[in-house]
Amino acid sequence: MAMEIERKFLVVGDAWRSLAIGVAYRQGYLLSNKHLTVRVRMAGDTGYLTIKGATDGISRTEFEYAIPANDAAELLDTLCERPLIEKVRYRIPWQGLVWEVDEFAGANQGLVIAEVELSDPEQLVSLPAWIGKEVSYDPRYYNAQLAKHPYSEWKDQD
Amino acid sequence: MAMEIERKFLVVGDAWRSLAIGVAYRQGYLLSNKHLTVRVRMAGDTGYLTIKGATDGISRTEFEYAIPANDAAELLDTLCERPLIEKVRYRIPWQGLVWEVDEFAGANQGLVIAEVELSDPEQLVSLPAWIGKEVSYDPRYYNAQLAKHPYSEWKDQD
Fold first, then answer.
1. Among A144, A103, A120, A123, which Cα is nearest to A10's?
2. Residue A83, preceding bond cis, omega within 30 degrees?
3. Is the Cβ–Cβ distance between B85 and B25 less than 8 Å?
């Protein structure tokens, strides 16, 4: 078990795009509610099964396990809720931290989110110029929520 | 992914008890419904995370992964539905197959079930003398159901 502490932002412009090579992600949820999510992910050719507990501010417990890629693909294709989340993830090192920029596709096309993982909720973070509005506390931007209410269906897109 | 094919029976008497040494199991469910279960199990000192698809007769898809015992204990203690399933499992070889006899405790005290895993749904099975009524098709005896409606609360115990 790990504790995940994460801040999340919208992204401005395209300057981030040249800073990393993207990896295709496909993920879905066996279960997602306020208290618990069980996620299946294919990140490139690697499968993962991840359990996350309830969110407490920007922190939550996380249990993650690598699983065979064939299993992940079958779980996504047969048992996960629809629609799946499709995105390309860019990992961008910046002043000692790694920013993960997710460019969504499919039902969430048009959405680009940057996340940074912290070791402490109070940690000071230097923001790259392409970082926009913070959305850490807006549950609509949780990936589990984007699977239930995709960005393409929002009436008030930021 | 594997296909699990299993027949399940009530147990008569105590003759099975001397045939194996039991291992303590503690398990719970992150999710259980008609289509899907996500189970956490401690079997002795080993942790497992298991995903099972919908039941089709006596068959269902199963994905099982070993996980660290500390993770399994924490998932059971913090995220699984209540009550947990507590039982002692006895693995008894018999005429080329292995029977698993589960003697339940806690909220399911008094219940003893024997399961045998098959490679084919049509496979002929020789039944030991201590095997009673078949309950393969009775959903009350699913462990996930025993977590929701424990045996101690049944009005019509067999």
1. A103
2. yes
3. yes
Please tell me whether residue A37 adopts helix, strand or coil conformation: strand
- Interchain pair A38, B38: CB under 8 A: yes
Phi, psi of B17 (to 5 degrees): -65, -30
A residues 3-42 lying closer than 8 A (beta carbon) to B? 30-31, 35-36, 38
Look up residue B127 and give its two tokens.
């039944």
DSSP letters along A83-145, please? Answer: SPEEEEEEEEEETTEEEEEEEE-GGGTT-EEEEEE-SSTT---PPPTTEEEE-TT-GGGSHHH
pLDDT tens for A20-34 read 999 999 999 999 998
What ipTM, to 2 d.p.?
Answer: 0.87
Mean pLDDT of all residues in A116-121: 94
- Residue of B32, B71, B81 to mutate when probing chain A, most A C-beta within 10 A: B71
For residues A50-79, give the mean pLDDT: 94
pLDDT at B56: 82
Domains and CATH numbers, chain B: 2-153 (2.40.320.10)
Q: Is the pLDDT of residue A155 over 90?
A: no
The CB density around residue A101, as the number of other CB atoms within 10 Å, is 24
The continuous run of DSSP H or E covering B14 comes out as none
DSSP lists the bridge partners of residue B74 as none
SS3 call for B52: strand
Chain A residue with Cα closest to B80:
A36
Structure confidence at residue B158 (pLDDT): 66
Looking at residue A32, its pLDDT comes to 94
